[in-house]
Design the sequence.
């Protein structure tokens, strides 16, 4: 039965048309990427850009599935482009300065749908892996979007079974990120590791229970034992609230605690 499901997903991917754009100030890079896509007829190049700002304007009114992005560009570099991008679009970074930018690229794996970070010289070798990685992430994202259509507050089980075992949301103390994985810290002390985007996960978790307090941590409000304007305590765990989220988080926690006191 499982083989049939996998086969169906692969057939679905092959039939679906994907749209991509290229953002690079060097014309040969445009030609190289488009050349490699000749082997993938279900991919359509929507546009190519030498200027990231023009790309941002285009993406405001056009839907695409994948962006091939250079880092070193005049006026606006690739990282600045990612910060300015207001949509969740899968991104492949291609650069001639792999070692120089690899450290700075790491955080974008967590929250900006970064599919792959590749050296331009090695692009021919990595291209099939890039496509496979994108299509896998696309299937996962579609699954998450379908789940998101349900009422958030009706969800009681973690959206993915891990090791074929359903995970009750009520048993999760907090969720954090380690490298490219999420880690579920359970209330019994167990840690469960899974490969999933924290950015996508926060969209489907019930907002009356789970709260993102900084880029890499989502907490279960039920387990909050104390908090200040800058920190949150969950049993023996203490977390700093990001400066950007302090006002929002503290207000939500105050409201939640007030309701709990009323119920008590």
Sequence:
């Amino acid at each position: 039965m499982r083989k049939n499901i996998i086969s169906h997903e692969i057939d679905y991917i092959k039939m679906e048309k994907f749209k991509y754009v290229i953002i690079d100030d060097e014309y040969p890079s445009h030609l190289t990427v488009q050349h490699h896509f000749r082997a993938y007829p279900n991919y359509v190049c929507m546009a190519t850009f030498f200027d990231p700002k023009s790309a941002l304007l285009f993406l405001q009114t056009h839907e695409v599935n994948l962006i091939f992005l250079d880092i070193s560009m005049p006026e606006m570099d690739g990282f600045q482009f990612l910060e300015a991008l207001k949509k969740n679009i899968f991104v492949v970074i291609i650069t001639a300065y792999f070692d120089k930018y690899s450290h700075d690229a790491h955080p974008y794996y967590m929250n900006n749908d970064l599919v792959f970070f590749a050296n331009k010289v090695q692009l021919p070798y990595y291209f099939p892996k890039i496509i496979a990685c994108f299509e896998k992430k696309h299937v996962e994202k579609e699954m998450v979007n379908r789940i998101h259509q349900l009422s958030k507050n009706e969800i009681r089980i973690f959206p993915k079974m891990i090791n074929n075992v359903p995970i009750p949301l009520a048993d999760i103390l907090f969720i954090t990120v380690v490298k490219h994985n999420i880690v579920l810290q359970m209330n019994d002390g167990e840690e469960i590791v899974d490969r999933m985007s924290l950015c996508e996960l926060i969209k489907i978790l019930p907002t009356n229970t789970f709260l993102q307090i900084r880029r890499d941590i989502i907490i279960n409000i039920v387990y909050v034992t104390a908090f200040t304007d800058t920190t949150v305590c969950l049993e023996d765990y203490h977390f700093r609230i990001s400066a950007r989220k302090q006002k929002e988080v503290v207000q939500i926690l105050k409201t939640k605690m007030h309701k709990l006191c009323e119920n008590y």
Confidence is low (pLDDT under 50) at residues 1-14.
